[in-house]
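In this section we walk through a basic example: taking a raw amino acid sequence and producing a predicted 3D structure, encoded as discrete structure tokens. The instruction is simple. Fold the sequence below.
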Amino acid sequence: MELNEWERLQCFGHRLQLAIENSLKNLTPTSTRQAVERAVGVCKRVVSAFSNSWKRRRELAKAQAALGLPHHQLITETPTRWGSRQQMVARFLEQEKALSQVLLADKKARHLVPSWQDVSILDSLNKALGPLFEFTDALSGEKYVSVSFLKPVLHLFNDQILSPKEGETELTKAVKGGVLKYLNEKYDDAAANNILDMATLVDPRFKTTYLRENRAEYMKNRAVTELLGMVEGATAPPASDPRAVGSQAAEDDPPTKKKTLASYFKKAVPASAHTRLGNRESIELEVAMYLQAPGPASEADPLEWWKQHEVTFPSVARLANKYLCIPATSSSSERAFSASGNIITCKRSCLKPNTVDQLVFLALNL
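The resulting token sequence is shown next.
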């Protein structure tokens, strides 16, 4: 993609995961970073101790019933799965009393009982990271528009989710600040900003709401210019097909009619400046009317709205069709990779490529 200079949008889920890892690695002072690493290590060892022992799992179920805790299994962190560390920590904190009770009764595992400092650190991490992965899950869908939510989500992160609040620990504030700084730096790229701003502009729920004041007018002009190029590209014959002009002339002129000298120049005359100006004015008017039209509720499906208003705003609808299909994360392709891995196993290693393609297609579409 870099060699061909194609525009691309990085996966939001991957970037969020990198932001969290970068924030934890850059914690200061060094003692704080080491304390966080120790607390997460204790959590991993406790989860491993219960995962490898059916007796401890049985005792955990009894402790959960006695303490009135939900009968949930512990979650193991998976490096390739976004948010699995936070989910592991959240489940550990939920079951901390039952876990400590079982570990204290086991002479071989008493050394794994977490201290109050470890629990406090894990609680601070959970408060900082917990709300973030709700957005990752929401942006990982395939059957609804997701890319136009990125600008609103980043705006929400800056104003509410990742802003420091009263009563939070210094660790929670530091983790939030590190994540926010990383995301703002990565999404300050001009190319990515143009894609996100255009996707937000053509979403009737948001339009220019989450665009900066100095960007709103620029994106309007950019949309008009892009639409003008799409309209002119659709009306002009393909340059690579030398028969296009001749076939068009044959359709316009009856075959029995004798051609005049002027007919040979009819299609060669370029569009006048007045025609181009008229197209631009009409597109500008359509964009302005679209921006002034009332949009649907935030919970509504923008694709359904465009089905109903495509006739009213035909040019802008083409732009929406181009941008709103972009996925915010790479979860859809990751699911396809997972399906392929489940189909191609050691005992099915002789499958032909065409058979694999058909099986993956059926697995993802049935």
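Looking at the output, two observations stand out. The two ends are 32 Å apart (CA to CA). The first helix runs from residue 12 to 25. In the next section we compare this with other chains.
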